[in-house]
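Convert to structure. Protein one:
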Amino acid sequence: MNTLIAGAAGAVASSLAMLATLTPAQAADCGRVTIAEMSWNSAATLANIQKIILTEGFGCDAELVPGDTVPTITSMTEKGEPDLAPEIWPNAHQDVIANAVDEGQVVIATKTLQDGGQEGWFVPDYMVEEHPELATIDGIRANPDLFPDREEPGKGRFYTCPAGWQCQIVNENLMEAYGMTDAFTLFDPGSGPGLAGAIAKAYERREPIFAYYYGPTAILGKYDMVMVEGMEHDPETWDCVTSMDCEDPRPNAYPPSDVLTLAAVSFKDRAAEAFQFVSSVSVPNQVINAVLAWQEDNQATGEGAALYFLETYPDIWTDWVPAEVADKVKAGL
């Protein structure tokens, strides 16, 4: 996948160099643009950000269409639609993405999230301030008593993923790999909201908690959670860690995940100026987490979150577009 991204970056640079030779009519030939809006909040927000800027700034007839990772990539490959998919996580779909790029119908436009997707084990910042050793896996292993499980006295509690999530298997294997199964219970929170609620409740009460979580999410925007360090990803043993039948899991960590925007080649070819904007989109995780936290607090839609981002963080998005386009978007807001 790194080769794919590097190759795509070269293609993007080449296409951007061609912009100087375009006439205004060619550059503005945007037309109808379809954008996949995935069902989770960060993806919906990013889709709406692109829609607003393409509509207000470039005069595109931009519209959102329902999307999901594999069906969207397949449709882009076979039909050339939708034109854009603003939040694709490649770790679980590397072959699908590689085939789409190899067939010449799809390009990787940009790494949408500057820091990539986050997955890992977390503790609250206030616990690390009091016990700095809890910032590392060795410190966690040595101090299960700091995360007491009221239902199993003498053990620490680790909030794992709900049943049915792949990460529940991974967490169980990692607990065994780090020799923690005798000292910690793996507590199933029952659901995604249950896991988020447990972290929120503990944080607001300044209580101890040790949990799996992921981002970008509202939880990581609202609460200062520290990802446990000292766990390194090993691609050679990772497949075993993800398997229920792994007999000898080795120490590992969730891999970093590049989060990508995919674009149909037909869109790149017909709307080079708009594609230049899309290929420039890159949002810091801290910012998207904060936007998602605002969205949750205000029960806002993906469009509302996008408008909040555009109004609150002009220092970020105005770098993605020429000044005259930024002025049009601001006027539209």
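Protein two, convert as well:
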Amino acid sequence: MMKKQQFIITFLLILFCCSNSLYARHAPTGDSLSKKESGLVTIAATAGIGDLTKLKDAINKGLDAGLTSNQIKESLIHLYAYAGFPRSIRGLQTIMSVLEERKAKGINDPTGADASPIQNEKPKYERGKAILEQLTGVPEKEPKTGYAAFAPTIEIFLKEHLFADIFERDILTYAERELVTISILASIGGVEPMLKSHLTICLNIGLSEEQLQQFISTIESAVGKTQAVEAQKILDEVLANRK
């Protein structure tokens, strides 16, 4: 009898741990942004506008807050999908120099985990489509309309590359990737429809209104009041539409 009870308890613990690991793939961490999450916002925003002096300071603070070098590197790789290769590469060059300087001072920052191999053998388009539907909570419509119908090639690139090749990597959670995304979009400006969509995704995957308000404050500190005011307008619109 005791062995049977122990088996049941062990089974339930394994089931609980597995469920938690799946949820952690995209779950936010709490009611307010953690220091690591705020660090990612500042890193993404300053890298997005190419302010390498502020980016260097942001990377140092992010490492001090507990971000691994691989998490920061991944956020700067993610950056290129929204701000282009030049900004991404300059960001990567900046973290390289920061790590060298810190190592010279005797600071050995943790590298962190590498991305796990992708085991899914489905076509990348289908994988990307499934991830996008999970993020938005809305089934993809057929036939395509708007830019997707006008330029179907870019729609394929988005599904296969952005949402499969990039979002499928597990170094950052979905919530962390979305924080990086909205930070880039808010900092570069002129992409309000995209920022609106990704703020909606943030709420859909569990980030709270309080966390997004904190994101706005962090953007103001990182890149300026103008960007924060514009981002606040879009967030207010998103929240009003949900209510």
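The longest helix spans residues 2-24. The mean pLDDT is 90.
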